[in-house]
Design brief:
Layout (H helix, E strand, L loop, with lengths): L4 E7 L4 H15 L5 E5 L2 E8 L2 E8 L4 E6 L3 H8 L4 E4 L11 H4 L18 E4 L8 E8 L4 E8 L2 E8 L3 E3 L1
Antiparallel strand pairs: 1-5, 1-6, 2-5, 3-4, 7-8, 7-11, 8-9, 9-10
Length: 171
């Protein structure tokens, strides 16, 4: 099965929640739960001052846009593209472009929750990336960024290096 990615869908302004509901209804009707995983309208808390009173309200982060976590294929593209209120996917021409991990972080969207079997003080080995086959001791774990910091010897001195949980395993 192909990998699911987050895509941005352009909608008529003010129709974001209706588009979300319509896509979710179509997912249920066509039994596409395994291909279209999640539909979101990103919201943020904004403090408004009216008549001298502060009030916290939720506003859309991106009016006119909806985020969809889906496996891109002809059927899912057709379903989302032809939902009432959708004007198209964001991307050049008719080719949707998935969001990158860096673009999703400020939105509070986690790519995936990786479970780890090591803790600070454990010896780990890097299994991918630039530091592949490097062995080190886990100095610090950052669960929000999903990274571990290990000390690596460079130019004769210990240097801390931050590596993704996905690229390491316990020795």
């Amino acid at each position: 099965m192909a990998e699911a990615n987050w895509f941005v869908v352009h909608t008529y302004s003010g129709y974001e929640n209706k588009v979300k509901a319509n896509i979710e209804k179509t997912i249920e009707n066509r039994n596409l739960q395994d291909e279209i995983l999640e539909v979101r309208v990103p919201m943020q808390d904004v403090v408004e001052v009216k008549n001298g009173a502060k009030k916290t309200v939720q506003k859309k982060m991106f009016p006119g846009y909806v985020l969809v976590n889906m496996v891109m294929n002809d059927e899912t593209w057709y379903v989302v593209r032809n939902t009432r209120g959708v004007t198209g996917f964001v991307g050049p021409g008719s080719k949707p472009v998935p969001l990158t991990e860096a673009e999703m972080k400020p939105l509070g969207i986690r790519v995936d929750n990786i479970s780890i079997d090591f803790s600070e003080g454990d010896t780990i080995v890097v299994v991918a990336g630039a530091w592949k086959d490097t062995v080190g001791v886990a100095q610090r774990l950052d669960l929000n960024k999903q990274t571990v910091t290990i000390n690596v010897e460079m130019f004769g001195r210990e240097t801390p290096v931050e590596i993704s949980f996905a690229e390491v395993r316990k020795l």
